[in-house]
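wait is this the right file?? whatever heres the structure
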């Protein structure tokens, strides 16, 4: 089944616990946490203290998406928190393989992400064979509520082919502009995991479960 990762960027920060509680009990769910530093991307969100507190109030597996210039810092500082997956950007790191190997010591799943301007061929096959997840950005990272870029579909198809060709087993995650229409295209192109923010959280809490199951 397709995993859905609701991005709390679109949740109610003044009542975050209620939004997170409303998601509990839904199957195949990760909680997507967008960490932005105001440097790798222009926007800023939240960091270590909020992630730590979230980990104490929910059993939903946490999925951390680092949109930061120095991912090494967060990978080290978050290591004692129960995080299922941590993803950093290929564009932010000169030695991504080394950082993946470091992160694998602390987290069950480690991902690499590419922005819309980065092509799949820029990810070394050696790196692909070491990651658990590849996050394809379908919007320019930094903000929720943007329009899905169809160019991401071709990238997911390429990744699916590479995975088959080299018998690899990473998951493919898509992030940005996911809604009922784009989720169908993303799943057809090979997405195993869909991040969705505004499409889920614009609804009432009572309907989160139904919306999430419709997406997959
Ligand atoms: C954008 C973030 C996304 C964002 C998605 O930089 O990585 O996770 O929250 O939001 P929607 O689903 O509203 O496009
Ligand atoms: Zn994200």
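ok assuming it is, sequence goes like this
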């Amino acid at each position: 089944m397709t995993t859905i990762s609701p991005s709390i960027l679109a949740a109610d920060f003044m009542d975050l616990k209620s939004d997170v509680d409303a998601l509990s009990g839904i199957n195949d769910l990760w909680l997507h946490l967008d960490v932005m530093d105001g440097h790798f991307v222009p926007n800023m969100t939240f960091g270590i203290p909020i992630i730590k507190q979230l980990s104490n109030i929910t059993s939903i597996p946490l999925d951390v998406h680092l949109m930061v210039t120095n991912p090494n810092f967060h990978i080290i500082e978050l290591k004692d928190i129960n995080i299922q997956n941590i993803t950093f950007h290929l564009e932010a790191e000169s030695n991504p393989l080394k950082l993946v190997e470091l992160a694998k010591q602390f987290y069950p799943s480690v991902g690499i992400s590419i922005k819309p301007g980065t092509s799949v061929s820029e990810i070394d096959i050696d790196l692909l064979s070491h990651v658990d997840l590849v996050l394809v950005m379908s919007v320019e990272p930094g903000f929720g509520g943007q329009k899905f870029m169809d160019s991401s579909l071709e990238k997911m198809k390429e990744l699916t082919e590479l995975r088959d060709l080299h018998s690899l087993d990473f998951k493919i995650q898509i992030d940005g502009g996911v809604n009922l229409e784009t989720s169908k295209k993303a799943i057809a192109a090979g997405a195993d995991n869909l991040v969705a923010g505004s499409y889920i959280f614009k609804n009432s809490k009572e309907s989160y479960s139904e919306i999430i199951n419709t997406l997959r």
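The mean pLDDT is 98. so i think its the right one actually
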